[in-house]
Amino acid sequence: MGCAKFLQRQQAKNYQKSLARPTLQKVDGLSPEGLQRYSASTGGPVVIGCIPYRVCSSDGKLEVLVISSRKGHGKKFPKSDWMLDESMDEAARRSALWEAGLRGHTGPVLGSWLYKSRHYDDTCEVYMFPFHIADELEWWPEMASRKRTWATTQQVMDGYQHLWMREALERLVARYGKSYL
User: Which is an annotated GO molecular function term of this record (predicted)?
Assistant: First the structure.
């Protein structure tokens, strides 16, 4: 099958998918299909994120991993756009792998929040998941532009300027018990 024929088939498949889901829009270059999910309530992108955590064997306290923003201003949890061709779980695992070099598994959703994105100049809807770390990779796709830092939940809560990120972390702590603080 020639390249032109393949592209025609892909475009037809993508068009059919967009008809089945009217809240989705085509955005070139964000995934192999170029399809990103959009919020029916805000019109902005839907973002999936996770809070990577581990329980310290020495004292049983919960630690979370934060990453630097690409420009190095502040810390954040891994998050990225939710693409049409993946589940929420897959999107959370992808963002943890690409942005922080982590492998693991997600737990039930912590909640959803709305936030104003500087990148999109739009209101995004974000869903956050707990992410229990199974493996911390030595090399990962965005390692040149992001630094990883382990911190206690209290250190992270004291340092975050975004209310929605603090609320997501509070829900994680509430789910796993105050003894982890």
Answer: pyrophosphatase activity
